[in-house]
Specification:
The chain has 300 residues and is mainly alpha-helical. It has one domain. It has helices at 3-28, 43-62, 71-88, 91-96, 100-121, 124-130, 136-139, 142-151, 156-167, 171-178, 181-202, 215-238, 246-250, 258-299. The longest helix has 42 residues, at 258-299.
Length: 300
């Protein structure tokens, strides 16, 4: 066994040992842990975060310098991954289970902010280079490619982006989700994966082809998702009826009325969501101009 392979397996073993230690602390000493450690430890989230950052670091070591993404893209990618960990595996997750506006802030990170920066990082090549060799063929398997094509289809991508936002906020469904830990975690996974898939489609820096969409189509998709978000945010922030009594049942951990909690949550959907769409539109316009200049230079 080569020295490199030994060190690689040692890194995986260290990741598992660290995960086991965090699990043990969360299991037996949850009240004594600092704010940044998990409230409820999740092995899938821990492994997804740890392996992604580990493969990213290894990919940077493996790839030659001229194939590295710009530093700002690498920082965007790491920021996005870390933001997912913060909202899913720190004490923020506890507040998200007891305050509607914190829950909406967490989902804004999963569906917009964090996913946006992960997509902006464009680090797929680095991750692929850092993965173990036996996993790489799985990414090219037909089921995986079919799933990616479905999630990034020009029709399905904006539909799923808006539909998931609305679906998980249907009052009856939301009540069930907040009372079932397994469905709650599944909801978070769907929002994060859908967010990354959608913004990766929109923020691709390449022209079509090889990018899936033209810049005009990307701008159209941004407009398609913006209005439904504004409508939903306006409804929740202006209504005078408590739509989500589950937070009263579970007990709010902040001194805030149900309506104020709901109104702040609606504003988070309304305003930051709109600003994210605005930022995406700027990125699309800048990308379009850069690709046009590149085409002009190549033609000259």
């Amino acid at each position: 066994m080569t020295k490199g392979l030994i060190s690689e397996w040692f890194w995986y073993a260290a990741l598992l040992v660290l995960g086991a230690l965090i699990w043990w602390l969360c299991r037996f000493y949850p009240a004594d842990l600092p704010f940044l450690l998990p409230w409820e430890f999740s092995w899938p989230i821990y492994l997804a975060t740890g392996l992604t950052l580990g493969w990213f670091a290894r990919g940077l070591c493996v790839l030659p310098k001229d194939q590295h993404p710009p530093l700002w893209r690498s920082l965007c990618f790491v920021l996005g991954i870390v933001s997912f960990w913060v909202v899913l595996q720190t004490r923020i997750d506890y507040y998200a289970q007891h305050m509607f506006f914190v829950h909406r802030a967490a989902h804004f990170v999963l569906h917009h902010f964090g996913a946006f920066f992960i997509a902006l990082g464009m680090s797929g090549r680095v991750l692929l280079a850092g993965m173990p060799d036996f996993l790489k063929p799985l990414l090219k398997a037909r089921p995986v490619q079919v799933a990616l094509s479905f999630l990034q289809n020009p029709v399905m991508a904006p539909f799923l982006f808006v539909a998931l936002l609305y679906f998980w906020l249907i009052p009856q469904i939301h009540t069930r989700v907040m009372l079932d830990a397994n469905i709650y975690e599944f909801m978070n996974w769907t929002m994060a994966i859908n967010g990354v898939m959608f913004w990766a489609l929109i923020l691709d820096s390449r022209a079509k082809p090889p990018a899936r969409l033209s810049h005009l189509m990307r701008a159209l998709l941004i407009l398609m998702i913006e209005l439904p978000q504004m409508v939903l945010g306006a409804i929740l922030s202006l209504t005078e009826r408590d739509i989500y009594p589950v937070y009263t049942i579970c007990g709010r951990v902040m001194d805030m009325t149900a309506l104020n909690d709901q109104h702040y949550g609606g504003l988070i959907i309304w305003l930051p969501g709109t600003l994210t769409s605005f930022a995406a539109m700027i990125v699309v316009l800048v990308t379009m101009r850069l690709n046009e200049e590149k085409a002009e230079r190549e033609a000259a």
